[in-house]
TrEMBL record:
Spans through the membrane: 7-26, 32-58, 65-92, 98-120
Keyword Transmembrane recorded: yes
Highest taxon of source: Eukaryota
Protein name per UniProt: ABC transmembrane type-1 domain-containing protein
Entry keywords, A to Z: Membrane, Transmembrane, Transmembrane helix
Length: 123
């Protein structure tokens, strides 16, 4: 799932680059190009930052919980707790990945719509 998310992010960035090239090629007003570039950059940075922060938080939480469980007890209950926590973490990561993919898709669609509108106006 994580790999799929990464692929989508790469595709999203690729689309953004094409979008910028198209905007410049169409010879739009400079301000429009700048706005799009800024928006695209901010969105990209935000996505990467969110992914990174979530990953770090998840890792820290898992490590802390595992340490606590190991210190408290090595009973059957403790093992069950660890398993449950790991499952929960995996689910969270998958959900976050899907969420990121959806965001990238929405942004990409929005940008494509803008391009279509601009190109149509040029005609």
């Amino acid at each position: 799932m994580q790999r799929k998310a990464e692929k989508f992010i790469v595709v999203g960035k690729f689309i953004f680059v094409i979008v910028i090239i198209v905007f410049i090629a169409v010879g739009l007003k400079q301000s429009a190009v700048i706005v799009v570039v800024i928006v695209v950059t901010v969105v990209n940075v935000a996505i990467v930052a969110i992914v990174t922060i979530v990953a770090i938080v998840v890792v820290i939480v898992v490590v802390v919980i595992v340490i606590v469980v190991v210190i408290v007890a090595t009973t059957v209950i403790a093992i069950v707790i660890v398993v449950v926590i790991v499952v929960v973490v995996v689910v969270i990561v998958v959900v976050v990945s899907i969420f990121i993919v959806v965001i990238v898709a929405i942004v990409a669609v929005g940008v494509i719509v803008i391009i279509v509108i601009v190109v149509v106006e040029q005609l």
